Fold this protein.
Amino acid sequence: MKSVKHSCWNRALTAAALLLAGAAEPAWAFGQGGARFWFPPAVSSYGAQVDRLFLIVLAITGAVFFLVEGALLWFLIRYRRRDGSKAAYIHGSTRAELIWTVIPALIVLYLAVASQRVWAHIQGPPPPHQLELEVQGEQFAWNVRYAGPDGALHTADDLETINQLHLPVGQVVLINLASKDVIHSFFLPQFRIKRDAVPGMTSRIWVQATVTGNFEIVCAELCGLGHYRMRGFVTIETPEEFRAWLAQVQQEQHT
Ligand SMILES: [Cu+2]
């Protein structure tokens, strides 16, 4: 019974979000690729969840915005100065105050619970991974490091690329994020993931691509004069294509 209620509540919010954005087709928001109306396509396993949360927050804050601004306008016109009318002395209303305190509190609580679930999934312990690599930010490039034939990172047979991140589609990839100099922010817009690369520490994120294609890495932290050109490329390919590419890099760098 509880889950039925929960899904009704979710459906109502979703419908409100879609209505607000002027869309009629649910696939627009939740189909493969996530919300496509103004976002870039979502190509990670959790992309659609992030978009959905965004739309729910937008629907709620949008509705509150129109309600509050509408009420403000109505009060301005309804209670405008008129000859002969006297201002009433009002002492306040406990009931009204309770209503406008409890309702926002419940909305905030709902948003906290809904986003915590998505946050824990993305930022919590990663699922078992098939590939582990390192991305290191540097003024002004992304250094990508893959393990060589020994399967371990930071050994003599590592493979390194600059601004070229290749990922096998469907596989969970663990990314160790580091920085050589200042704080950068590793942002994969189509994956809906962004994390600071902080000098002196290694952060971990995980991604699982759902489609093949070419996308972008951008730095989302003003990290110096060349920040604007700190741009890399993500190539999502089939596991076979990925292995072939890695073998080619191996040949170029270690023979
Ligand atoms: Cu940067």
Notes: Helices lie at 2-20, 27-30, 47-78, 94-123, 239-254.
